[in-house]
Amino acid sequence: LGIAADLRRALDNGQLEVYFQPKVTLADRHVLGVECLARWVHPAHGEVAPEDFVAVAEHTGQLARLTEVVLTAGLRRCREWADADRPLSVAVNLSARTLLDSRFPDLVEELLTEHRVGPGQLTFEISEPGMLNDIERVLPTLYRLRDLGVRLSVDDFGTGASSLAYLRQWPVHEVKIDDSFVQGMATDSGDLAIVRAVIGLSREFGLTVVAEGVESELTLELLEEMGCEIGQGYLFSRPLPYERLEAWLSAQT
Ligand code: G
Ligand code: G
Ligand code: MN
Ligand code: NA
């Protein structure tokens, strides 16, 4: 398959880009960190959706390499921000499949040491549906990552149809409410009820709650009223390439 070879070339030649989207406190828009999001512009086909090239990577034995490229880019920037006296944490998305690799935590430990980044500055986001599929097999890796001191986040929460009780059993620190509910909450009472329930339960269990897909001031106000402290979304900033994120950060203060 041509696309698999193209992806391999892109990974080898540094053509896979990493964009960064700020995670901010809703009360005062203080930037706590960034989510790292992979971007690939194919020389002939143009921009390829991350879901698509992540799937290609998964099916052609390149997932570990893709994850390492994104993680390395994130840790490198994390180190630079710390050196510039403007510490920001970084979040990297993981496919559930990466958690089936029992050596992955060793790689994480090595890269943290190499880049002199404290484990608490790194969060891994794992989507809820992926987590549910294979929870028994991914749990050992999750425990090892947690023991390293890395933060773990359940991404796209609410889309996996898991019982809310799972939140108590999983070794995670953070819950990200899926953007579909956040985008709907200003106009749809069902979405609003789901968002309220997830915020309440997360707080009850001592988990950080992040609302993703915050696009309007009204949504921001509703979230704040319900006790959600952190958000991410176009209202604050789209995912940006490094230079544009730097400009955006400078304009914040
Ligand atoms: O950035 P965007 O909204 O297009 O992301 C689409 C999806 O791709 C999201 O679910 C995001 O978690 C996923 N994604 C982006 N970058 C990575 C990555 O480096 N690894 C994995 N596994 N998923 C990613
Ligand atoms: O699944 P995950 O949460 O990792 O996906 C992040 C994706 O959400 C990225 O592709 C990013 O581009 C997208 N995104 C981030 N903020 C917003 C937003 O405010 N509105 C919409 N529609 N998408 C967003
Ligand atoms: Mn994510
Ligand atoms: Na999502």
UniProtKB/TrEMBL annotation:
What range(s) does the EAL domain occupy? 1-253
Q: What is this protein called?
A: Bifunctional diguanylate cyclase/phosphodiesterase
